[in-house]
Amino acid sequence: MSPKGWFDLALFILLFVLFIYVFISVRVTSLHKVYFLFHSLMMLWPFSQFAMNWTENPDLQRLFVTISFVAISLVGGGWFLLTFFLTRTEAQLSQSQTVMILAPAVIAAAGVVLNIGGDFALPVEGDYVHRTYGLWFWVVTVVLLSYFFAALLNLFRAIRSPHTSPEVRKQVKITLWGIYVLTGFACLDSFLNVVLDKWLPIIPGLTSLGIFLSCLFFVYVIKKLNVFDLVSIAQEDIINRIPYGILVLDEQGLIMKVNKALSLTRDLRVGDRFELASFLETVKVTGDVETFLEQYKQKEYQSFRIEIEVESRTERHFILQVSPILDTYQSFFGSLLTFQDVTQERFLVHELNRQNEMLQERNQSLDHIRSALSEANRKLEELVLTDSLTDCYNRRYLTQQLTHEVSTNTRYRIPFSLILFDIDHFKTVNDRYGHVIGDEVLLRTSQVVKQAIRSTDILARYGGEEFMIYLPHTEQQLALQLAERVRLSVELNQVPVELGQALEEVSVTISMGVVAIDVFSEEDPAESPEEYLVQLFSAVDKALYQAKEKGRNRVELGQYVNVAPLI
């Protein structure tokens, strides 16, 4: 094998070493993946040159020649794309634009692979180590030169842009040297080994050496300047995504950083001097400007803020906050200014104030409606919980109330009693006087009972002519006394009724059953308050039945034992 082949192999090994070094020494991001693909394409050139000189098989030589020129064709497009990442403008590229950028490189590579009629390269005496180039070789050369000039234009535009940070400018300048080196060596290789091949001996490895040297420049940018550092990229992205305007000043007041949110509203550039006092003179300020500026000049170790109003095409309001930037020794070496856009909030406040009078006027009508609704709800609640005829509570309310009451009473051993009474021979009253008079008797009887019981007692119409009284905190003896008082009040009550032209008084009596819960045992209670309540109702109903059996118009005491606390 000729020394030329070993030289290309050495350069391939060095490129591979660089590849491994970058791969293991940086945090891999999507940008690094693009670079690794680009680096792999560049490694194919020296490897294919070595392999072509290593084999004597013309078909394999043809294969390695094709691989090397396909790789170098794609490298041109890769270089151009990488310049967008270097200048932090990759977000401007759409998917269709990326395809258009890579299309010439892919077409050039396809022509190399096809080599129609030897239009790209032909062997000399069957040996591709010595070969002649056709028209398509110069097409590939023109494509690569076009990528070179496009990359230069993109990099120069970034250098001249006022929005490019000093760090990015430094990265771009070093990368330019890498492009110069690669293009220079590739052009020198084409000129000496293609144009002047008839007069000069072959000089090996020029393009491979240019690729290696350009990679050195690029690796330097990656490692020393952290062009693809994950933390730097994340910090830059976060700062530009924050909706607040951010302005970073050094201790002399020079602008070090302006994020996108602020650059869209103010014409501020990195490297310019920012005079806060002059700036505040151009805007409308709400607050004490003198105190604000005095704090800024004294560089106090705290944040302070003020509200400003900027007149542009529309009126915009900002909260301007200034915070000192301190080093590890708490020494001042810069300021951080944030511009929080509160235009929408101020508009909403103004709009709320404007509508406040309208709301106050509507509040009066709403208060009237609310009162009417409250009264309607009260009446509706009465309809739901009370008996429409007697104005007593109904059975539904009684059951709901007792379910809660008896559970509390049994748990804390609080005595209580129930009275169930029934109007004696009420069917006879209906048959003799009619249902209208019967309803009147029910109403007057409930009114008398209400007057005879205590204010804490609950009277409910249990059904038909039956009523139940719940007596909280009432033991057996007191319950019997109250029941007797109710029975006597009803017996003495006379209900006047009109029968034709005559006026007659109707008198009724009641039979009463009483159950008093004032002794509690330790045995297991009923499974639930509802079941326990059913048992109580059954006990008081039996007592009422006994009162009727013993002649009516009397009080009978029922029994309910084995009452334990409901847990």
Automatic annotation (TrEMBL):
GO terms for molecular function: diguanylate cyclase activity. It comes from the Bacteria. Keywords: Coiled coil, Membrane, Transmembrane, Transmembrane helix. The chain crosses the membrane at residues 6-24, 36-52, 64-86, 98-116, 136-156, 177-196, 202-222. It comes from Paenibacillus apis. This is GGDEF domain-containing protein. Pfam families: GGDEF, HisKA_7TM, PAS_4. Residues 349-386 form a coiled coil. InterPro entries: Diguanylate_Cyclase (IPR050469), GGDEF_dom (IPR000160), HisKA_7TM (IPR031621), Nucleotide_cyclase (IPR029787), PAS_4 (IPR013656), Rev_trsase/Diguanyl_cyclase (IPR043128). The keyword Heme does not apply. Residues 414-560 form the GGDEF domain.
